[in-house]
Amino acid sequence: MGWGANSWLRITNESTFGTYNSGGTATWLRLVGDTAFNGMPEPQRKELFSADGGNTPVQNISSRMKVGGKLRTPLYPTQASVILGAATTLTSNDLTSYTIDHYDSFEAVRYLGCKIQGLDLSCSSESDEGIIMLDIDWVMQKFSSVTLAQPAFSVFPTENPYVHKESKGGLTIGGSTRTLYNMFKMSLKNKLAATFDEDTYISNLTYVGRTFDFSTNFQYTSATDRTNYEGQSGQVCSIVFTKASPAHTMTLDWKSSVRYTQRQRYTPLGDVARQELSFRSFFDATATTDFSFSTT
User: Fold this and answer.
1) Which is nearest to 11 in space by CA: 110, 159, 107, 117?
2) Which of 26, 76, 100, 125 gives 111 a disulfide partner, CB atoms 3.0 to 4.6 angstroms apart?
3) Per-residue b/e over 78-91, b at no fewer than 16 CB within 10 Å?
4) Euclidean distance between CA atoms 194 and 202, whole angstroms
5) CA dist 163 → 74, 85, 112, 125, 292 (Å)
6) Where are the domains of the chain?
7) Exposed / middle / buried, residue 184 (Cβ in 10 Å: 0-12, 13-18, 19+)
8) Can you give the pLDDT at residue 1?
9) In 3D, which of 15, 3, 19, 136 has the Cα closest to residue 75?
């Protein structure tokens, strides 16, 4: 019988899409919470309803296989560059592919040709000590069985993950440093063209664009955001997380073409007034990108 606490996962960058790179850089990701990774092959099905069967299903056609999965893990400073790079860095206008090896307490499975389709980075002062959590949506080419020995505890990060309070003084909206916010969330959606052609599994998984959205929730203290939201002019936006010991920093920079997409105001009887703001990053012609990050 399997036991969820007896499971582990690593990612390894590939040199060739869909081929395990034995010389690649392996990163072991900490699995936190129930079903922290749910990689699964999904047969593509077409049921045929036919008159000769009285308009009931008479045949099931399945000739292709999609593979995908979601991964949840804390964001550690020593792994931030690897994960953010996997989700956002383009080389020759494409994302790097990865091999995921996962032991789920029952069997070990190798997923090849994995790219990040979506990444949500979120933290809140209201829960879990403000730990930054990553929810990563992977698309994969194919899978196979593999032998994966239990890793030594030393392969996992020894420092604490980033937390919400480490962004204090580091959030910039419209070129001004902002304070009194109780949450932050970034949502990246990569557009990946998965083509099957004549294969059972996808033959290519090609990056064809992306969107960056983020949101936060301020105490309502001025009308600045209302006028910026109504004006819809480009804004300079970034956030910096700074960990004192051991010393690490992470900067997320949406350049100068961010637009407000939504504004909601809350005036509870028993709490402070707040406004939740949502933003989208647009391509910045001067910076020649919509987003960049740096870690130290």
Assistant:
1) 110
2) 100
3) ebbbbbbbbbbeee
4) 6
5) 10, 20, 32, 9, 20
6) 8-42+63-295
7) buried
8) 56
9) 136
Residue with tokens 């637009």: 259
Six-digit token string for 230:
């109504």
Separation between Cα atoms, residue 151 and residue 9, nearest integer Å = 9
* Closest to 119 in 3D by CA, of 139, 100, 96: 139
Q: Phi and psi (nearest 5°) for 18?
A: 80, 10
The pLDDT tens digits of the residues spanning 19-31 come to 999 999 999 999 9
List, for residues 119-152, the tens digit of each pLDDT value. Answer: 999 999 988 899 999 999 999 999 999 999 999 9
Measured from the Cβ of residue 60, the count of other Cβ atoms closer than 10 Å reads: 10
- Name residue 265's beta-bridge partners: 275
Distance CA 217, CA 39 (A): 33
Q: Which residues pair with 210 in a beta bridge?
A: 190
Take residue 269 and report the two structure tokens written for it.
């009887």
- Mean pLDDT, rounded, for 36-57: 91
Contact at 8 Å (CB) between 7 and 103? yes
CA torsion 153-116-205-192 (nearest 10°) is: 170
Give the whole-angstrom CA distance, residue 193 versus residue 90.
Answer: 15
Mean local confidence (pLDDT), 183-189:
97
